[in-house]
Each structure stands twice: as structure tokens, then as C-alpha cells.
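Predict structure. Chain length: 440.
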Amino acid sequence: MVRYLIIGNSVGAVGAVEAIREIDHQGSLAVVSDEPYPVYSRPRISEFLAGKSTMADMLYRPEGFYQTHNVQTYLGRKAVKVELGSKEVRLEDGEALAFEDLLLATGGVPFVPKMDGQGKEGIFTFTTLGDAEGIARRLPQTRRAVVIGGGLIGMSVTDALVKKGVEVTVVELKDWVLNTILDQDAALVTQDALADAGVRVMAGQSVQKILGRAGDETTVGGVVLATGEEISCDIVVVAIGIVPRTELASGTPIQVNRGIVVDRRMATTVPEIYACGDVAEAFDFIYGINRVIPIWPNAYLGGRVAGYNMAGMETEYPGGVAMNSLKYFGLPIVSAGLYDPPDSSYRVMRSLDRKNRLYKKLVLKDGLVVGMVFVGAIDRAGIVLGLMRDKIDVSSFQDTLLAPDFGWASLPAALRREKLTSNGRSPSRGPSVLSGRARV
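Prediction complete.
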């Protein structure tokens, strides 16, 4: 019997482990993962592929993390079924682990559409360290690559491949790259940086077929677009996106929509079963609804909230927001919240300097910042994100938000004093704001 059982070994699991051990130092705790590695930073796998980070650099927590927190690990062991009646998780090798509380932190899996020619050697996805290692082994025979998908994953692998001297063509179904976090103006600035790096972007296109090499149909030799155009390549990376990995909840009373539905405690519809991270539909404080937000900080915070509640410390998830901060091809970008308003009831403020690759956009609703995009100059993005998260009415100073000299001193004096004197803490930094008693 395991007191706390966690399926998954990424950032959400780390958040839960650390929160549990703040409350309960003795209860048995186990982590199961089908990956064989200790917990590593998934956002840095592009650095690993580019040769800028070693495996030691990739570690998200120091060696000895599991021993320090008294965690039993089942790495390289896949969980295949949750038996709610007996409260057991069955592993692929037949072993069953009984639990009292269970956290599903299973993340997501790459979405790979059906294409003619699948199954050839040289086709990859790019969401795990194993994926990066596989591509790295292939690089000595790679001069040209086709990346299918111009989203966050696609840009990540493209940046790494370019740094390794590979000629890359990005095929994106929508009209511009990073379309889930950028509007068209911001995307055009980004595509200028891509072009300067030698990347060819084929927007509004899709891959219909993966070709083999001349005399070797088992190995990638190119792709055929929907228009009939052929592009020669040595590898294909499918980077369209991820889908929540919900199969362990299938066939159970655990409610699943796109992801596993959780409440503000990160609890599922079944008692003593929790979920967090990319697999969970959790509260979005901008949209005011539950939805899947597959980003690193939300996964960690959700894991902590789940961990506290599993250990008996009643905790409420404050809500997440779709916030992405990235820097590829030398261009820093921050995007958060509702970047593309649905109607004219929103106020949109923007500033564009395409020549110098600078773009700022804010979306306001009833005096509140509900969306933002910063490209090129992002040094003030953190202040704006704080205004968004704290739901500060910016009506009295909204016209200064995009000014070149906007900063902390631009805020009203009363707001600055409030920020300076505030000593509130969020669940991500400890249990001081939490109520309830620990159950150990």
C-alpha cells in the first residue's frame, strides 16, 4: 500500500512531491513513469538537441531529489490501468500498486495525423528527452528537415536544428506560425526572424505524404504537400501539438472532456483521485472556465495544490493563464491571456515597429488587462502580467502601458505602496495562505 501514488514524473509531480513532504514527512510516496530518466526540464530539450545543454544541465531537480524526499520510483515502468474498486494501479509488467491517494500527472502525447508513408525511419516527434536523443543520433546523416507544425513545439525543434546547421522547412496548416499565442502582426515579425535564419515557412499548407528515398522506401526522403509540391528532406519532425494523456481515466467514473476535469482543489470527480498539468482541465482565471493549459508553471502550481490537498492541507488553485515566454532565433516573445479578442467590447492597444522587430499589444476589458503580446522588447512584460494576474483596474493609467519608459514608477502611488507592503503568498511558494489541518 502506497499512501501517495503519482503517475508521471515531470514538473507537476515535482510540485506534488514537494508539497506533500512539507506536510507529511513519513507517509509512503511513489512515482511511476514510463520514461527512464530522473525528472528533467522538458522546455530545455531543444537546448539539449542543439548541443547547448548536457544531461546534467537538463535535470530539473538535483541528483538525490527522490532520496531526499523519500520517494520510491518506478522509472521506465508504464501504468496501464487504474482499478478504482481495489484502488490499484496496474503496471505493464503486471505489478499492481495499491494507493490511498492518486495523482494523475500523465501529461500529453504528440498528435500525429494520418499521412501516407508513415512508419519510415527518420520520422520523429519532439516532446521528450528520448525524442531529442533520437533526432541527435540522426543528425550526422541530416542536411534537410521538414517540421510539420509551426507552433511552440515546431519553433523549438526548428531553432535547435538550425543551430546544428540543418536546413529547415516549416509546414504550417494555419496562415502564420505560433497562431495559438500570436496575432498576425506579431507572427510576421517572428517570421522575419525565421527568414533571416534561413528557415522556409510554408503557411496555409499541409503534408499529404511522406516519401522514401530513391531505392529505399523505408527511410524518409521527402514530403508531398497538399498542393502537390515535393520537398526533399532527410528527417520529418511532427510537431503539431499534444493531446492530454487521459487513457488511465477511460472507462472509469473520472470525468473527462478534452482533459481530466478537476475542481479548484485539483480533485477529479472521484474522491482521492487528483490530476494536474497537461492532462487536466483546470480553472483559467481569464476565461473564467476550466480548460487545458499545457504550460510548465501551471503544471507545477497545480501539482503543489494537489499535493497539499492529498496530504490534508485544504488548498485552492488560484487559477492559471495561458502564458508563454520563449526566445528562438534571437527573438524574445511573451504572450499571455486573451491575445485575440472576440468582439469590439474589448479595447486593443498596440505598437508595431517591424523594421526593428518590436511589437506590443494589450487587450483590456472593463479596465482590466486580459491579454498581452510582447515581441522583441519584453522587459516590462512581467509588470503587465502582474497587473493581469492581480486583476488591477488600469483605467486611470492605461494610456501609459505601452510607453517606452513604462515601468514600476509609472504605476499610481497608492498601487505601488500596496505592492510594497503586501506580504501575501501564493500556494506556489508555500502553505502560508492555506487553511485547514494536515492529514498525516
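Summary: The first helix runs from residue 11 to 23.
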